[in-house]
Specification:
This protein has 14 helices and no strands. Helix 4 runs antiparallel to helix 5. The chain starts with 17 loop residues before the first helix and ends with a helix.
Length: 247
Amino acid sequence: MKFQFHNPHPIRWPYRRLKNTAELFIEKAKTYGKVGDDGKLLTCLNWASRLAPTNLDYLWVIANFWYHQDLDANAVPALSRIIKLAILSEDLEKAYNRRAYSYELLGQHMDSLTDMDWLINNGFGDAFRFERRGECRLKMGDFQGAIDDFSEVIRLYPKDETTLWRRAEAYTLAQRFTEALQDLTTYYEQFGLGYQKEWLYVMRGRVYYHLGRHEEALADFRKVTGVSRPLDTARDYMKKFFRQDVG
């Protein structure tokens, strides 16, 4: 008698036609996602990925799930597969942008910078991406690169409060104190003290100190309400706020 294979779970394995299997798993994944069953959803996504590894529509479902769940270590491989296969510019832009952000959250700043470079060099640079690349460069210690990117944002949006502030910080870290003071002065003239007033006094005091304007530095430091008692000299405040600057 001819041997026949017995399937102990016929209801759980109804997929007869391989070409439809991945699509069915994707549909099941969407159903499980609506009811919050992440375990079964992930199982279905994994099967769909195995059975249709070059289908961009399915890969986007998988990548979007990881990305929106903030599971960036899983999102990166899925987005990398999309980048490898994609032809349309909108797919490439979206995938590079999301992978750059995932790399950033994972602390892989060089990888994030590489993806942002690709976006900007291929015509997808906007103020937000220049700002993100500037922040990435600042974290990596590339102060001039950060200044260049922040300057581009300010050129596009002269009234951007946050970026003017960040460029002042980049100038300070680059020890370009005259330019840092110019940005802080512009910030004060355009936006006043606002919610940043304590930090404005601290930053401007630091810059004044390095420019040798110790009396002005002391006056700014003494406006900081977080200090329990007034200190005698600008150097005393520098030791409190920026010990690395004065040793």
